Amino acid sequence: MEEAKRCLNCGGCSDCGECAKYCQPKAVAYGMREERIELHVGTIILATGFDPFDPKRKPEFGYGIYANVLHGLELERLCSASGPTKGEILIQGKRPKEVVFIHCVGSRDKSVGNEYCSRVCCMYTAKQAHLIRDKIPDAHITVLYMDVRAFGKGFEEFYERVQKEHVVYRKANPSEIYRKNGKLMVRGEDTLIGEPFELEADLVVLAGGLVPRKEEDFVSGLLGLEKSPDRFYAEAPGLDPIRTGVEGVFLAGCCQGPKDIPDTVAQASGAASLACALLAKGKVRSSEL
User: Fold this and answer.
1) What phi, psi does 103 have (nearest 5°)?
2) Rounded Cα–Cα distance for residues 228 and 131 (Å)
3) Per-residue CA distances from 66 to 70, 160, 186 (Å)
4) CA distance linking residue 3 with residue 9, whole number of Å
5) Which of 24, 241, 266, 284 is the most exposed place for a label (fewest CB within 10 A)?
6) Using CA atoms, how far apart are residues 257 and 250, in angstroms rounded to an integer?
């Protein structure tokens, strides 16, 4: 970590080689240089993924202002045994006792232009709440949700299991996070009873959604692909979620829309199968490309 900070402070690489020395997986290749490669291919499978929503676009939640307001990905890193705290959840050197999760940050939100559901936030929040309960048994955990969409196999059962672990699910519309007497305060409206509330928190976790990658406009223009209203790649008309309007170009994963790992694997397998079937026919020509 200290070596990484030193490198970032250089401003420009001085080719000292220190990062390669400290990188245990040997992932730093100093011999690699920028090059242009031309490939002749018969099909293309787009699996360009997604970008996580930037919580700074919701300034009312204090991300980047308060050190104990984290993105879901940052908490995931803290929970990992290979993370900076070896899997121990520490906020400013202490275990948090009051933890609040906020669902749908950057999803189903007209104010940021994302009206779609990101599909993964409900369940990764449930998993992280379960991990915190396991690591900090006496923590008070509250999940503020718009709706819980536990749609996959075993998802509803896991959601019910987490509730039995004394994780409080509260249907709410959080509006603001601010600091008071050294504590974070989460202000919002309980949408079941229509009354305002405030919660104290040592840690607030923002369950950020999935958004299209910034580079997709360039790729879609290059290949002549259409976008759907949510700005992800549009599939071909009909009931096929893999084919595009351009022959020989297939979609896999979150570039077509938010989805979890099992759905991504299934779509990728289908894309590979269709690509192989097309290549088996011999040469393919497309005026679009």
Assistant:
1) -75, 160
2) 36
3) 9, 32, 12
4) 10
5) 24
6) 13
**Taking a C-beta distance cutoff of 8 angstroms, is the pair 208, 103 a contact?**
no
Looking at 3.50.50.60, 2.40.70.10, 3.30.565.10, 3.40.50.2000, the CATH number of the domain 59-208 comes to 3.50.50.60
In this structure, which amino acid lies at residue 144?
L
Rounded to whole angstroms, how far apart are CA atoms 97 and 259? 32
Angle between helices 121-135 and 72-79 (to 10 degrees): 40
Nearest by Cα to 188 from 58, 65, 53, 60: 60
Per-residue pLDDT of the chain (289 residues; tens, 9 = 90+): 555 566 666 656 777 777 788 787 788 887 788 899 999 999 999 999 999 999 999 999 999 999 999 999 999 999 999 999 999 999 989 999 999 999 999 999 999 999 999 999 999 999 999 999 999 999 999 999 999 999 899 999 999 999 999 999 999 999 999 999 889 999 999 999 999 999 999 999 999 999 999 988 899 999 999 999 999 999 999 889 999 999 999 999 999 999 999 999 999 999 999 999 999 987 656 555 5
User: Among residues 224, 225, 233, which one has the least CA distance to residue 256?
Assistant: 233
Measured distance CA(80)–CA(73) in Å, rounded: 11
> Distance between CA 252 and CA 241 in Å, rounded?
9
List, by residue range, all CATH 3.50.50.60 domains of the chain. 36-53+212-284, 59-208
Q: Is 3.30.470.10 the CATH classification of the domain at 36-53+212-284?
A: no
